[in-house]
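Handoff note, outgoing to incoming analyst
You'll be picking up this chain. Sequence as last confirmed:
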Amino acid sequence: MKFLLRLGLLFTLLYFPSASGAATDLPPDPARLEASWWDYFIIGEQDDPEVLPQRIETTSQRLSALRAQFALDGQNNLVALTDTILSNLARYQKFIAEPLPPPPLVRVAQDAYTLSEIRTLIEDLRKAGVKYAEEGHEIDQLEQAVAAGQRDLNQQKVDYRSLDDNAPQRMRSGLELMQAKLQLELGKLELAWRKAGNKSLGQQIENLQALVEAAAQRLTATEEGIAAAVNARIEAQQKAESLRLKLLRAQLAQSGTLALSLTEQARDRLASQRMVELDVQATREEIVAAQNTLVEKILRRISADNAPEPGPDRDYLRTYSDDLDKVKAKLAEWRRATARSRETALAGIADQSDEEIAALLELRAKLADSTERDLRAVDEQLIGAVQFGDLFDSLLAQRESGVTRGMQAAEDLADLSWEQVLQLLRTTLFEIGGTPVTTLDIIRMLIILTLAWWVSKLLSGALLRIAAKRQTVNDGSIYTLSRILHYIILSVGIMVALSSIGIDFTKFALFASALGVGIGFGLQTLVSNFVAGLIILFEKSLKIADFVELESGVTGEVREINMRSTLITTNDNIDIVVPNSEFVNGRVTNWTMREAYRRVHIPFGVAYGTDKELVKKAALEAADNVAVTLTNNKSREPQLWFVEFGDSSLNFSLVVWLKPEAVKSPGAVHARYLWAIDDKLRQYGIEVPFPQRDLHVRSVLGKHSADELPLTGPAFRSGEQTE
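Most recent structure output, in case you need it:
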């Protein structure tokens, strides 16, 4: 028993090392990878540099033995995977031993520079800048690849951990995990190496930039150099004019043709691409001419010991910079058009059976490639032109005073900030029907909609003022007209706002059909209320200040008729928003639709035996005492109607016509008339009877028959029988 325990302890010590660091002394086993298996290849600064090669060699031997076993078993896929891991282990060892790129040598400025030497410096700076930009783009792509590799590795770790220890696919999964980790570490090492090289290149660019600035102050001017600049400018201008003339002829030739057949359309597109190339070439020559003009100014200023006033040259430099910015903007457009033309031509060649059209498409693709080369030449020329502009700027700065220079710097900063703001405003946020929408477009739309809303409010206010001055104008008609104008102006404003950003309304057919489906399923209530609102406005069955009673029991004055709903204010000053469809689909009682007068009925009853004429007198006097009773109208005088013989009273109804101001307060008016009637009935001693009822009592205080009930006592009071 003790022998077995000692054997188990020895097995544990050999195959499950302690946390003291022994886990890193064994090469990783693909079938039993620990979470920290990569620590085997991590060497500290205090460790012997030869440890890593030894461990890589040990791991390679173990993997080679596994590879031989895989080959015997016919597992060719695992053989290939093992070969890849062995190759990456060798690359990893080489990368670790490879030193990072050294810093560049610092070039010292000369005592004097000629124009050709400055051109060489600027050309070196341009090449370094292009290389720096390309390497920066590659570094960004490599960083994204490393991040994606880390995510994939994490997922592979989870998949490997979920496998059973004896699962047959565990060996393959472990090898794939080792390969993914090696690939990720190689990517990280390559990224660090590239960043170091890019940083070194950036330092070289800074050194060249400093040399160019120093050369601007040490430039020597000769008559031969000035003459060479003038000749180069004239030659470039002549080439640009010749190219522009060819471009004009090509445009005139294309404008006179109508491409109907497929062959003619292919020729037309080829001609369009040729015109783009001519435009690019002419622009390049114009940049060369402008640059040589600037060189001439630089040399003449240096030969005059920088004595002339800098004002005119500063104005030229500002125009020069603006022209370069315009060319940069056109470059982006040319690139998009050329790339689209090449892609379309290449895609059409494979599907085209007509040899002539295929040949035209092939020429178009080649012409697009040529245009791309011309665009790169323009890019390079722009970099040199910008550098000469900076050189001229530093030369002018030496001549300008501190105050002038400060004002110029502030002006340049303001221009730069404004350009940055414009660039931000012109950035595309999203697209609608293929039309890009920018922040500037949204601001323009909001301004147009605000103006439309303001014009609508202005016209509505003018109509209300006209109605207030002219008593013959109907207020309801004015309100209806104002609401219709409001909707029309807003609709026109929305259409103008959308048109201002280039949206074609003919492209909204699909959107309109989708909107129709949406209305059918989810927006039918909203549309129903909107249409009902238009019906109310045009039909004039309801207007502002009308007093209405709805089928739902809502009673109040109409205050607003909006697009979706109508606002009603009750006599308790409660605002109720009622959907417009309720006015169209339900029954609505409009108390003030045609005229403001209304007749009310005030019912009351008196005891049997009362003189009816006395009741009539009292009721009519009560009506006269209420201030809201309509007077001086013989056809609408108060009346008393004898309605019916009630159970315990003679029932009458006082019929009264009300003045307009009382129509909208039915509850208060009813209460005032009841109050006045009660006063008059009391004044004339007219009795308002209580209801009479016969009660048949079967048991009171233990009595079981009517003969046993007492004839006096609390059971008989005021003619009532109580239990």
